[in-house]
Design brief:
The chain is mostly helical. The protein contains three helices and two strands, in the order H-E-E-H-H. The relative contact order is 0.12. Residues 85-104 are annotated as: Disordered.
């Protein structure tokens, strides 16, 4: 066997070793990504359960304990509907509510209404938080499915936390 043939055989063996090691590394990376994706899905599911409990408990307080519906007929001079885009409270006509020109009795009623509005806003935020977590969970499960199917997911298919794994 000539030196040239020995050299070629040596290069082939080295190439086979590198290919085998590369495949092992890729398989370990894929398994790690899958495990991380599974952990992320589990974490989001746990956060979602807690967010739903929080949402349900706040709704129970707002709707059963305080019952905002019973406050609708308060004789408040200006029925406040919420903040406008300048950060001021609006009345039902969309104009700025003039809290300074109200009587002390009206002011107390308005304060009650403002507290109810704040509770309702908190309840709404918690409902939105649950929806956001449900969307995040859906995205994470989709990324996990792609990893399980052996697809190479694109960066925009994988939620932000998963894209770090591709590097």
């Amino acid at each position: 066997m000539s030196d040239q043939e020995k050299l070629r055989m040596c290069k082939e063996e080295i190439s086979k070793i590198r290919d085998r090691i590369k495949k092992e590394i890729q398989e370990k990376d894929r398994k790690m990504k899958k495990e991380l994706a599974e952990l992320k899905v589990k974490g989001i599911e746990d956060r979602l359960k807690l967010a739903r409990v929080e949402r349900d408990e706040i709704e129970q307080v707002v709707f059963k304990t305080i019952n905002p519906e019973s406050f609708k007929d308060l004789p408040v001079k200006k029925y406040l509907t919420g903040y406008n885009n300048q950060g001021k409270f609006e009345d039902e006509n969309g104009s700025d509510a003039d809290l300074d020109s109200t009587s002390t009795e009206d002011t107390k009623e308005i304060e009650i209404k403002l507290e109810i509005l704040a509770l309702e806003k908190q309840r709404t935020c918690n409902v939105k938080n649950v929806r956001d977590l449900e969307k995040e969970l859906s995205d994470a499960k989709e990324a996990l499915t792609k990893l399980n199917e052996g697809e190479i997911a694109q960066d925009n298919d994988i939620p932000m936390y998963m894209s770090q794994l591709k590097k």
